[in-house]
Amino acid sequence: METPVTSPNEHDVAPNPQQVVVTVKNLKKSFGDRKVLQGISLELHESENLVILGRSGTGKSVLIKCMVGLIQPDDGELNVLGYDVRSLTADQLNEMRLKIGFSFQSSALYDSMSVRENLEFPLKRNLRIFDQQELNDRVVRALKEVGLEDSIDLYPSELSGGMQKRIGVARTLILNPKIVLYDEPTAGLDPVTSAEINNLILDVRKKYKTSAIIITHDISCARETSDRIIALIDGRNKVEGTFEELKKMHDPDLDPFFRYNEIQP
What three-state secondary structure class fits 253? Predict the structure, then answer.
């Protein structure tokens, strides 16, 4: 079953700039002599889709891994949903992570588990839900949200790349997160499937009232899903604004993105 393609107006949700859910200040991270993050600062607002745009290897994924405590930064401040991330204990980190959905670039499904088992896993591990009827109800509901309820007994090897991405999103949504982090959601997908994923990201925000950070080098994804874009160049947030504002800047670091995707000012 295909995710319906809908117009942007059907997804309109106004971000709340008065409510900040993520604050990053002067964040730095190096791996040996390689400086990856060189003083990034940003804010994510309630119900906002913020795109972090940049080439591969510019530190985009490192940034969101720092946000959830998977990587320790060398310096800077990180506040997520009121949590001072760098000072959290292991138990506090787990508490925070339950409020954050992480949609991995590879979908990160367990090959040995069916779709049903993949979605049941976080419910059992994180929420300690073992009643089979409740598990089934939650799994079916999550699969309906991504238009793939018929895939419930399939295995990842039986799914297309786009279907795997959508199942990965369903597994993220099943815990009702307040923030969703999307890591290259359209990577490796054809244009039609990419458009379906973009619409799904918008649907998630509308239905779940989530805030999201979308890591991508795909300018089409940035155009379709963003309220605001931050361009990450050489480990720094060089410029930010709406898609149209960035397009009009004619910045030499950004122009290749627009030219490659044939999106001209």
Answer: coil
